[in-house]
Design brief:
The structure is a homodimer.
Chain A (H helix, E strand, L loop, with lengths): L1 H19 L6 H8 L3 H7 L3 H26 L3 H17 L5 H7 L6 H27 L9 H21 L4 H14 L6
Helix pairs in contact in A: 1-2, 1-6, 2-3, 4-5, 4-7, 5-7, 5-8, 5-9, 7-8, 8-9
Chain A binds a DNA duplex through helix 3.
InterPro entries (chains A, B): Homeodomain-like_sf, HTH_TetR, Tet_transcr_reg_TetR-rel_C_sf, TetR_C
Keywords (chains A, B): DNA-binding, Transcription, Transcription regulation
GO molecular function (chains A, B): DNA binding
Amino acid sequence: MSAITADKVLDIAQRLVQTRGYNGFSYRDIAEEIGIKSASIHYHFPSKADLGVALVSRYREAFAEELQDILTRNAEAPKRLKCFVALFRATLRDDRLCLCGMLGAEMGGLPAPVNNEVSGFFILCEAWLIDVLKQGRKAEEIAFRGNPQAVADQFLSLLEGAMVVARAMNDTDRFDRAANAFLRVLRTPDQD
Amino acid sequence: MSAITADKVLDIAQRLVQTRGYNGFSYRDIAEEIGIKSASIHYHFPSKADLGVALVSRYREAFAEELQDILTRNAEAPKRLKCFVALFRATLRDDRLCLCGMLGAEMGGLPAPVNNEVSGFFILCEAWLIDVLKQGRKAEEIAFRGNPQAVADQFLSLLEGAMVVARAMNDTDRFDRAANAFLRVLRTPDQD
DNA sequence: CCAGTTATCTATCTACTACTAGATAGACAA
DNA sequence: TTGTCTATCTAGTAGTAGATAGATAACTGG
């Protein structure tokens, strides 16, 4: 089946990007893992840029769905933000970086179409965060000084960076410490 | 002169790693920019892993010196932390990532000796931050809940991540917003 | 002036890169 | 049966990767 192979390619490619980076793997690496020839992968994804774009757009769409799910399943800002953290934490669990954190870092050496997709991911995250932060403050579920945009920038940066640092120091606790410390200061003193 | 060429190689290689990543450039890229042949670079750095190690260890030593300078030139924690931010901000200014932020992300596809150097950089930063935070709290120059380690993790992660996100969104203001917002909450209310 | 050192060159190697052309085999439909 | 579509294959392209051997200057100290 075509769809199955294409999905396999995407799954393996995603893992390789998340661990080694865009220039750290080849079509052959993917092909060997599946048990086909690299030429067959060009059938599904003519160029590596095509593969990259497909990779990020799939990732972004899946992420957008999960963000929507968080909203419907959790009414309050603290829980919503905790779930947001959990999305990143789950990725780190098997030694992977956020796909867009990795590609964002490597942007200087990537095909332009890939870069556009990556930017889109961050825009999505920030917009979601700003929304959650605004609503949460209005409902007095969380408290923070300054504008929501600054806090969203802070939070997103923190999570992306914490994944890199935690993995580089081979200590996932560092991610948890950093994320939890941030969530803590967002809570109003009354709720503590 | 030998030293001059070796330095040129390191300077160019560093810029290329910071913008494209370790696997995003070749000896030839460096050679062409200097105006020599790639074989000549192998004379100075026999393997790419050697180059990588030299790159990070030079970066780390320079960074350590700057951190020491900050301590001697600034007595109070808020100023020290502001200077720490400025080190990262200066890197971002010409569209570069922290060398170790980039390599930390790509760790899964790097030679082991390079990885060790990268870990060393983060250990250095964390130790410095923890020290500054402890002293600053004791002197009541800054205020924070929880242990200094968690705040240091948070801060370092925030800066590394903010560089990636800001560059990916082509908006360095995002870095400033995130960093300043963090510095703000560390100040005691009385000082505001 | 000679010997050794340093830094570069030319030329080459092997392995791999992304990518392509054309053949093939099976599935499905008219 | 005939034709089309899908997904793979074999076999190859041109170009690049990191790396090496050996020649060649240029400088340096004795």
